[in-house]
Amino acid sequence: MNINDGGRRRFEDNEHTLRIYPGTISEGTIYCPIPARKNSTAAEVIDSLINRLHLDKTKCYVLAEVKEFGGEEWILNPTDCPVQRMMLWPRMALENRLSGEDYRFLLREKNLDGSIHYGSLQSWLRVTEERRRMMERGFLPQPQQKDFDDLCSLPDLNEKTLLENLRNRFKHEKIYTYVGSILIAINPFKFLPIYNPKYVKMYDNHQLGKLEPHIYAVADVAYHAMLQRKRNQCIVISGESGSGKTQSTNFLIHHLTALSQKGFASGVEQIILGAGPVLEAFGNAKTAHNNNSSRFGKFIQVNYQETGTVLGAYVEKYLLEKSRLVYQEHNERNYHVFYYLLAGASEEERSAFHLKQPEEYHYLNQITKKPLRQSWDDYCYDSEPDCFTVEGEDLRHDFERLQLAMEMVGFLPKTRRQIFSLLSAILHLGNICYKKKTYRDDSIDICNPEVLPVVSELLEVKEEMLFEALVTRKTVTVGEKLILPYKLAEAVTVRNSMAKSLYSALFDWIVFRINHALMNSKDLEQNTKTLSIGVLDIFGFEDYENNSFEQFCINFANERLQHYFNQHIFKLEQEEYRAEGISWHNIDYIDNTCCINLISKKPTGLLHLLDEESNFPQATNQTLLDKFKHQHEENSYIEFPAVMEPAFIIKHYAGKVKYGIKDFREKNTDHMRPDIVALLRSSKNAFISGMIGIDPVAVFRWAVLRAFFRAVIAFREAGKRHIQRKTGKQ
Ligand SMILES: Nc1ncnc2c1ncn2[C@@H]1O[C@H](COP(=O)(O)OP(=O)(O)OP(=O)(O)O)[C@@H](O)[C@H]1O
Ligand SMILES: [Mg+2]
């Protein structure tokens, strides 16, 4: 016998406790606990009950199983095994987390004619009353508190009752709660079986509030409001990083496309569903808050015919976090796609793209290489677990899934290879390191010149041109061309800037191609009236140990979103009540207009001061901070740390965040140098040269035109060959 068999036998022998509710058969007993094993029969259990409760042995009894309150009673045959029935109940019922009435066994008396004796309502009420008294005396657990699925119906609405209600619902795996027409979702961090087709059907064309709150209900309301009012709709999602915005967006899009499939399916649904994983692979990364954090904002607009059939869709992206490509904070990762590629590429791809292991790339290994001591003599790395894999992640599978999704959005195998080759080029580019040529001057050289041919092969640019662009700056003054060597720090910035620009151009190109695939030719027809539903999913509010320009931009975007919410929920709603003559006491709410003005109002908003200092050659981090101080010292929404720290603190709607001023100017003016643009546009690879520095729409049109001419030429050649064959034969 092997260990598994032993394990199984142990499980079979486990003793369970069945709670049997005898009702009126045994007055005064609420339930009787009966020990039983998996194979104990209903007849055996009833025998034990008769003995325990001293019941009349001349009578005939049966066990009835009740599933869910008010549900039917299922009579067990004498040979049925109650424990096995109980094992099929939901986990919550087994842990007695549901109230006793939801799932239970009842003892019933069988009449002489074989029918079941259910007893009178009066006696059932008596038992219930008895139960209530026992609970009052503390002999039985208190029943679960009643919860409200709409916070507006709370009898006493304050922060405590509101949170208690949400907590109480969450404990029962009810993650959704309404506040009028707003839906609050609490991230369960586990899969709940509430998103299957049964739920899609259930929430189709239903009235908000009739069923348990659900994200599908929100999608459904937007869909039907769009059709009935013939007006475009928008669903705005807000929450801090990791709260579930992207997941909710995916559920919404899933439901919005599922709803329209009642008409004919245009195939666009498939592309919409494929677009999600592609965008997430290239635009999401593991952060300290979220293993799949969106590092860009997106607005997905699903377009419909007036009949409600999906026509097409459109994705708009905002602010990809480029700095992540070259540096990640401790315990964070670069964009997912790099890890997918390195884990999932075939042997052939590995050699074609010169792939290495993640730990061999500077852009991926900075987080794991945390030096313990700074002295060169005993420079060693701490033995923390690596950050290349995330618990529960299967990178190979993710790579396959990505390939499939790319196929769904129409990326041909050749395009996919070009993309992967470019990703490899970016990683190798990051490995280029510099050293000073001599101690006497500042001129620099590349320490590892063997990387250059690899990058030049992958980018299909001349090696010498690549070398020159990485170590020297070319400037043209009046009639004169100057070539100046970069200083060490400048060269590193140029290398990183080239990598960031390549990745960001690739991301733009991907979004553009997805949009092209999502665009339906019917969208373009003048006479088809289209309606749309937009879903906004931006990066959530962030407050890390070190916050920089990226967090500043992300939090500003969230501040604007909060303002939008305030406008709609408080201001406009109250104005509407006033206009309708409804008596109403204005509700005080925290208006964040002042914070938004501090950041963006012309001419002294922080962003404008930053632009000024970014264009001023003599500016430093300190001059920028001094400017902030000088203009806004009196503003209560900004503070400056008491200790001489190069930072400032903003009082956001979601809390105070401290931003380090370092790199603000550089990141604000992070664009590609003209000589790098010239280098990449000289690439023999049309995919790379076309992607850089010009409008992707133009690139695409040019590609279509080229394909058209190629097709015409091929057609002509085929015609010529055909004539030659014919005349040859003759
Ligand atoms: N309804 C849900 N059911 C199950 N798991 C969920 C649900 N919502 C979120 N999660 C889990 O939480 C994780 C984080 O959610 P998500 O990526 O949507 O957060 P986010 O708000 O978009 O964060 P960020 O602002 O960082 O992009 C998901 O990867 C998923 O595991
Ligand atoms: Mg997200």
UniProtKB/TrEMBL annotation:
**Gene3D superfamilies in the record:** 1.10.10.820, 1.20.58.530, Kinesin motor domain, Myosin VI head, motor domain, U50 subdomain, Phosphatidylinositol 3-kinase Catalytic Subunit, Chain A, domain 1
List localization entries: Cytoplasm; Membrane; Synapse
What UniProt keywords apply to this chain's record, in alphabetical order?
A: Actin-binding, ATP-binding, Coiled coil, Cytoplasm, Membrane, Motor protein, Myosin, Nucleotide-binding, Synapse
Family matches, as PROSITE patterns = MYOSIN_MOTOR (PS51456), RA (PS50200)
Q: Which InterPro entries match?
A: Kinesin_motor_dom_sf (IPR036961), Myo9 (IPR046987), Myosin_head_motor_dom-like (IPR001609), P-loop_NTPase (IPR027417), RA_dom (IPR000159), RA_Myosin-IXa (IPR028558), Ubiquitin-like_domsf (IPR029071)
Residues that bind ATP: 239-246
Enumerate the spans annotated as Myosin motor domain: 146-730
GO cellular component assignments: actin filament; axonal growth cone; cytoplasm; membrane; myosin complex; synapse
What would be an example GO MF term here?
Answer: actin filament binding
Q: Which SMART domains match?
A: MYSc, RA
> Do you know which SUPFAM superfamilies this protein is assigned to?
P-loop containing nucleoside triphosphate hydrolases (SSF52540), Ubiquitin-like (SSF54236)
User: This protein's superkingdom?
Assistant: Eukaryota
Keyword Nucleotide-binding tagged: yes
Q: Which residue ranges does the record assign to the Ras-associating domain?
A: 14-112
Listed GO biological process terms: establishment of epithelial cell apical/basal polarity; intracellular signal transduction
Q: Which family does it belong to?
A: Belongs to the TRAFAC class myosin-kinesin ATPase superfamily. Myosin family.
The name under which this protein is listed is: Myosin IXA
